[in-house]
Design brief:
Arc Repressor Mutant, subunit A, 2 domains, single chain, Rossmann fold, six-stranded parallel sheet
Length: about 220
């Protein structure tokens, strides 16, 4: 009879205790091959806890009051380079994704992920695979690819867009709803719709997903 595999040891880093409790309960209750061995709510607690417990995978929040996930990564990887980090954040901004991947995280998923998907992501990064929520992988591919000229200095298509159209497009590509874009830019939803229609017409794209790819290719996001 084959002996059961050793559970993957997981450490949680998030400054919201309620969120940590929910993730711990989800993994401990329904995922027998994963076990949460510790948690922390600050950079200092995380560095000390990881050093003491030696987890296999660290689920890491990106934004925390005392430095954030990238700071945890920098400090831990100096002394424990074998620890695997998977960012788990509410943010889907390109700059956040790229920052933690540059710091050494193996993947990045958002907090909209289901418990089953999160468990699968933990297993995959532990096995050596990069894991990203849909849409986020494009940010990383663009940031780390050797594609000189992907965003040429002079881009006639991009030059046709007004500054406000670029602002709307940048937020649209990050996954903001029309209402969220309106709130961010202090304009009406109707005005957002007008700008999006104009951008679609000028770029000859047919939907927001094509626009997101177009914007990412030109490093607007």
């Amino acid at each position: 009879m084959t002996a059961p595999a050793t559970p993957v040891r997981v450490f949680l880093v998030d400054d919201h205790a309620l969120f940590r409790s929910g993730v711990r309960a989800e993994l401990d209750r329904s995922v027998p091959d994963l076990t949460v061995v510790g948690e922390a709510g600050s950079v200092a607690e995380a560095v000390a806890g990881i050093a003491h417990l030696h987890p296999d995978v660290v689920l890491l929040d990106v934004h925390m009051p005392d430095g954030g996930g990238a700071e945890v990564l920098r400090k831990v990887r100096l002394v424990q380079p074998d620890v695997v980090f998977l960012a788990l954040s509410v943010s889907d901004a390109a700059e956040d994704v790229i920052a933690v991947i540059r710091a050494g995280a193996r993947g990045y998923v958002t907090k909209t992920i289901s418990g089953r998907e999160l468990a699968d992501a933990v297993r995959r990064v532990r096995a050596g695979d990069p894991v990203f929520s849909p849409r986020l992988a494009g940010f990383v591919l663009d940031a780390f690819s050797d594609r000189p000229g992907a965003a040429p200095p002079t881009d006639p298509e991009l030059d046709r867009l007004t500054r406000r159209e670029r602002d709307v497009l940048r937020l649209l590509a990050r996954g903001y709803s029309y209402r969220e874009i309106a709130g961010e830019l202090f304009i009406s939803v109707k005005t957002v719709e007008t700008h999006v229609s104009s951008v679609l017409r000028k770029t000859q794209m047919s939907n927001r997903y094509e626009l997101s790819r177009w914007a990412t290719d030109r490093r607007l996001v």
